[in-house]
Amino acid sequence: MRALRERGVAVEEDRQQWFWRGFGRDARAAVEAFVNCATEVAETDASDEERLAGRLDGGDLLLFESGPEHSESTRRLAAFDDTIAADAFTLSFTRQFSFEDHEGEYLCMERLGLNIWTPLDAELAAAHRETIW
């Protein structure tokens, strides 16, 4: 949130949907903030009860997805937020962290994500869906 606010992006918390919402005009600044956060080295304090799983073990991953959405999940979001079209083109950026205990047993996973929806037009509807880990 700090990275967004430093770039002048106004966001509000949506506690019912468990995410923060901003305006489309701030999409470029939001992507820049996400990229900045995604390039920071993830670390946990040695005294913590949990630690980040090794990078090669999927402890810190980046995911990019894009494509036309005609999904039920997008329609459900559109039902709560009239700024999201039921059929939209989605850009999704996710950084996923896996945590383990000091014996190496899996504990949990946390995610930091940025989703950008834009109304679907003919050109975007023809685009292929992409998923890159």
Blueprint of the fold:
Layout: H1 2-6, E1 12-14, E2 19-21, H2 27-38, E3 51-52, E4 60-69, H3 72-80, E5 88-100, E6 106-119, H4 122-125, E7 130-132
Antiparallel strand pairs: 1-2, 3-5, 4-5, 4-7, 5-6
Molecular structure report:
The strands form 2 sheets. Strands 3, 4, 5, 6 and 7 form a 5-stranded antiparallel sheet that branches. This protein is an alpha+beta fold. It contains 4 helices and 7 strands; from the N terminus they run H-E-E-H-E-E-H-E-E-H-E. It is globular, with a radius of gyration of 17 Å.
Keywords:
133 residues; alpha+beta; 5-stranded antiparallel β-sheet; 4 helices; 7 strands; 23% helix
The quaternary organization reads as single chain
Compute the number of helices: 4
The average pLDDT value, as a whole number, equals 78
Largest sheet: 5 strands, antiparallel
Strand content: 35-45%
SSE order, one letter for each helix or strand: HEEHEEHEEHE
Poorly predicted tracts of residues: none
- How much is the radius of gyration in Å? 17 Å
User: Span from first to last CA?
Assistant: 24 Å
Shape: globular
Binned, the helix content reads: 10-25%
Q: How many β-strand runs?
A: 7
Category from helices, strands and their pairing: alpha+beta
In short:
This protein has about 130 residues and is of the alpha+beta class. Helices cover about 25% and strands about 35% of the residues.
